[in-house]
Amino acid sequence: MPDVRPTVGDSSWFVHDRFGLFIHWGIYALPARHEWVKQYEQIPDGVYQKYFEHFDPDLYDPNAWAAAAAGAGMKYFVITTKHHDGFCLWDTKLTDYCVMNTPYGKDLIRPMAEAFRAQDMKVGFYHSVIDWHHPEFIIDDLHAMRNHPERAKLNESRDQSKYAAYLHGQVRELLTGYGKVDVLFYDFSYPNPEPGRGKGRDDWQSEALVRMTRELMPGILVNDRLDLMDTDHGWDYRTPEQFMTRDWVTVDGRPVVWETCQTFSGSWGYYRDEYTWKSVEQLVKMLIDTVSKGGNLLLNVGPTGRGEFDGRALDRLAGMGEWMKRHGRSIYGCTQAPADLPTPADCRLTYNPETNRAYVHILSWPIVNLPLDGFAGRVKYAQLLNDASEVKMVEGAVHHGYTAESDRKTLTLQLPVRKPDAVVPVVELFLK
Ligand code: GLC
After folding, report:
1. Spatial separation of the C-alpha atoms in residues 207 and 228, rounded to whole Å
2. Among the four residues 130, 189, 272, 339, which has the most C-beta atoms within 10 Å?
3. What is the distance in A from the centroid of ligand 1 to the CA of 277?
4. Where exactly are the structural domains of the chain?
């Protein structure tokens, strides 16, 4: 197995569980056209305020959310406690710009953490280090007010270190008042050598922030977006975003713990008029592909302003759950297959080192024979995962005189003509 870089936080559950739910929720659910709407449309605070004043998710039922996630086979969740617009979803004592002062008026985070824990799921907090609302946050090129005519003048009276103190204070609240938190997902740094253009470790006081995070919550896993990639302790796992990697993610040539975060339709926050939704089949394949490279999938839902997962999201989660119910064994506890077991054509392989079983995910159903090069003499028994029906095996290649015998150490699986009723059928191989 690859020599994976050790983490400071506890990643043992993380690399076992493999599949989590990301939730992007905030007052941007009301404009319903991207969580960056304030920045994209350069909406002034006074105008953006209407979403704060109308935020009232009366149908919010975190138990229903947790049940939908558990039904999809997800084992942890990560919620945006604050996104870049600065709106806080918990009862923070450090700003009035939080849910307590909206018409809803109740802490959203506490019941959510409880509901997901009750489903045996781990708890993760996403926290934006960027803040387009805080009065001390220096207006840079990414800020919603970047083209404000008084930008330079406004910045004169701003003190980024006061913002950093606020940021640290809020993280302290979240890590001391909400029970066990398993993951902290900070977002994001964009250092730029030109003063006032970007933001990096000095702007967040990243070193101290990570130290405090780990002190307050020993074992917590911390992601990689605090501009501390060159340190040993500053991050635990890499987070490729909306990107499917070709191979196991590495840093300085060494495989690392990693998780790709992905959306259903492109935006993270609820986007009413977005029509680029991925199908259940694509999503299942994303999960398989990720685990076959030793990674995790964090799949996002953007709940509505009424507090619900919309029908399109529920449909995708249910579809994934249908597959996971019978195929979770090829995902949980699984990782990339050993190098001496090559991936067959049109397939993805995963492997469970505990049980010594390999899983052949068949992306394109072949006509009867599926040759597995390198598997000759390696397999005791084979079955389809969806119904535990035996798959016959022939040692060697089935060639009928048309192709020459090869020395590829082939084992041939003999599959039914008809593709089983599963978006991606899986053959479970009990290895010797
Ligand atoms: C990004 C985006 C964002 C989203 C996120 C998820 O950096 O700014 O809107 O929250 O990453 O990974």
Report:
1. 8
2. 130
3. 18
4. 12-330, 347-431
